[in-house]
Description:
six-stranded mixed sheet; 27 strands; about 30% helix
Amino acid sequence: MKRLSPVMLAGTGSDVGKSVLATALCRIFRQDGYQPAPFKAQNMALNSYATPEGLEIGRAQAVQAEAAGIPCHTDMNPLLLKPQSDHTSQVVLNGRPIGNRDAYDFWRAPRSPREDIPPTTEGLGGRFDFRQAVCDAFDRLAARYNPIVMEGAGSIAEINLRHHDLVNLPMARHAGAKVILVGDIDRGGVFASVYGSIALQQEEDRRLIRGIIVNKFRGDLRLFDDGRRMLEDICGVPVLGVVPYMRDIHIEEEDSVSLEQKRRQWAEGKVNIAVVLLRHISNFTDFDRLERDPQVNLFYTNNTSDILRADIIILPGTKATLDDLLELRRNGCAQAILQAHRDGRMVVGICGGYQMLGLTVSDPDGLEGNISTLPGLGLLPIHTTITPTKTTRQVTFQFAGQTCRGYEIHQGVSDTDQAIMQGDRCIGTYIHGFLDNAPVVGHLLAGKADSHAPMQSYADFKEEQYDRLAAHVRQHVDIDRLYQIMSADD
């Protein structure tokens, strides 16, 4: 196939739809005979994924790789920041954690105003040249795949962070990428945000922006015909498409903003599954499979009354097990979970939630903070110690006599080698993706939901959604024009 320039989907802000559009392009290029791969130099997310090599990347790039039909790899997301509080993050470089870092310290390291001086940081067990690391990862990826579908982060107009930026236009310059700017019309102010994002760039970066996509349009597209021409006139950049809001296409998301849009209430006439809303919740994509079951109302809550009357209660993963365990005791959720269990309800713990269901959780080295040990909820006979070593791996396991799949990403060791432990109306597991498997879902819903034909497998469902997403974007974005832009030599 013809060699194409990389394309970067940059944004006027966070949650404008860059990740989903990048997923669409990965599937479109694959359908058209190319071998695409996704790339995001630096990601900040709590939803992560384990690669086949047992390393860690952001969930969005794993989804995009799946849409591209290739195994995910750390070169697709070489730098991952996993927030642990409002001010600190775990830094994961090339799939391995290298330490925790205060956000202010991470970005305040002295730097030359020259953008060719790479951001570096010390105090993480060594001195790391992050710019060189992400550029090296891109170069390795670009040598294997064509084209590279790049994703920016947040807004490209944060001019106070220009000299520190690893992921937006400085990365596009290194890659020789054609940049497509994505604006969200649903939040309002799309003219100002698109024009301002372009106007605030330095001239060499402004020249990289070759197209605009207006995303999340609601209503009759013809009403924006004049707006499209006006946007092209004031920006001097072609509008490649206006993409309607996607209501019935389901793509796994990693952004905490998407969590805020999920259901929060108990519902009559459904199997009510309450996911306990932790302050540091992670990997909430674990529940996407259950959310689409028509007999299930899966909702997120820390309301004790709703927990008490739920049919099933799930303690999800967390980036700060001890802090969230302490908060569960403070806000009454721990007592509500135990009372619901005594009343005959099923309780499921995943990853950090599994640790909380045990007898004790200890952090002797203070890796998570100042809490050294806390008693767990006592529903499973395990003791957990938080350790510096992180387990990241893809796994297969047996459940109800069938082979199932998932992955582990956890910091901490329990005094059992069981990745899954079942007690009296209680299941704990370190396996993310546990609930994606039909035998597990069938076990949980047995006796609670009407018998019905088995749902489509989750893997098949996701493949169908990628194809539907690609068709939707093809319909509303000028893909031929995009190919022309990516084929140009300039």
